[in-house]
Design goal:
By secondary structure, the protein is of the alpha/beta class. It has helices at about 60-70, 85-90, 95-100, 110-115, 120-130, 195-205, 225-230, 250-260, 270, and strands at about 1-5, 10, 25, 35-40, 45-50, 80, 105, 135-140, 145, 155-160, 175-180, 185-190, 210-215, 235-240, 265, 275-280, 285, 295. It has a nine-stranded mixed β-sheet with strand order 8-7-6-5-4-3-16-17-18. Strands 9-10-11-12-13-14-15 form a seven-stranded mixed β-sheet. Strands 1-2 form a two-stranded antiparallel sheet.
């Protein structure tokens, strides 16, 4: 299923003979965390993060992500991408490995080269489960892409090969940033990227344009510098955030900047699970708690 071409790593994930459906990118309501399920028109599947692990053995993957996948007739994943090892992104990863059996595990390089931190237990457990199950594990970074046979491409924009694997830039700013493209539509998934990571991508003059922006770090103020919004120019923005969280996310300045920039804002704490559908030309956004809405 894997092949290399130049600097790109390719993941082929199509199911022959499937009925044509839209690309669906779903931001599952996992509270204060991130979990995204991507299902391509031909049935390819990729999960990006898995939400938080809770007390008593419960986690967001078991409670929300797996039930959503089952409802979509997803019994296994072509890939699981952990953007970084923080518990609110990787806490449910062991559950997804066990329940949805990804064909490959994709991680930022530092997870394979740096000693584990106290907050990285779940990510390390997912790695060990994949190793024991002989699931391929791949470090991903800028210049790599995941390509599905139906034309959907997930481009990895960050981190670059020379990004530090330890120190203050290794955690949120070292997370994987990806851009999902299908036809003329694009979604930018920022993970928890902060000012240093975003400045790095802007300096490299990467294509950061997107119809839909997954706002960084649950809407924290340091995740949306004005220069990014000027380049991205999204028609819609999704904030994955927990109800009544103690961090004050999303920050009012972020919401104001998005609206002034013309983006319609969707929030998992207010809208529930948010699904973006694309036929390659048009987008439609559905929310669990509101009627379907179109984005120009």
């Amino acid at each position: 299923m894997r092949r290399r071409a130049a600097a790109a790593a390719v993941l082929a994930c199509a199911l022959a003979g499937c009925a044509r459906r839209p690309l669906t990118v779903t931001f599952v309501d996992v509270g204060q965390g991130d979990a995204i399920v991507i299902q391509t028109p031909s049935g390819g599947t990729l999960a990006v993060d898995a939400g938080r692990r809770g007390d008593g053995g419960d986690d967001a993957a078991r409670r929300a992500v797996v039930p959503y996948a089952r409802a979509r007739m997803i019994d296994s994943l072509d890939g699981l991408l952990i953007t970084h090892a923080d518990d609110d992104h990787a806490g449910g990863a062991p559950t997804l490995v066990r329940r949805l059996r990804p064909a490959s595990l994709l991680v930022p390089p530092r997870l394979l080269v740096s000693p584990p931190g106290d907050h990285e237990q779940a990510a390390r457990e997912a790695l060990e489960r994949c190793r024991s199950g002989r699931v391929p594990i791949r470090a991903v970074g800028r210049g790599m892409s995941l390509r599905f046979h139906d034309g959907v491409t997930v481009e990895v924009l960050h981190p670059p090969a020379d990004w530090p694997s330890d120190g203050p830039l290794a955690d949120n700013d070292g997370c994987v940033v990806a851009r999902v493209r299908y036809g003329s539509t694009a979604l930018l998934l920022l993970g928890d990227a902060q000012e240093a990571a975003i400045a790095c991508m802007l300096r490299a003059r990467l294509d950061l344009r997107a119809d839909v922006l997954k706002v960084s770090h649950h809407g924290s103020r340091s995740g949306l510098p004005p220069a990014l919004l000027e380049v991205c120019r999204p028609g819609a923005a999704v904030v994955s955030v927990g109800r009544g969280n103690v961090y004050g996310h999303p920050h009012p300045a972020v919401l104001d900047a998005l609206r002034r920039g013309g983006a319609r804002v969707f929030r998992t704490d207010l809208d529930g699970t948010v699904s973006v559908e694309s036929d390659g030309v048009r987008l439609r956004i559905r929310t669990a708690l509101e009627r379907p809405r179109r984005v120009p």
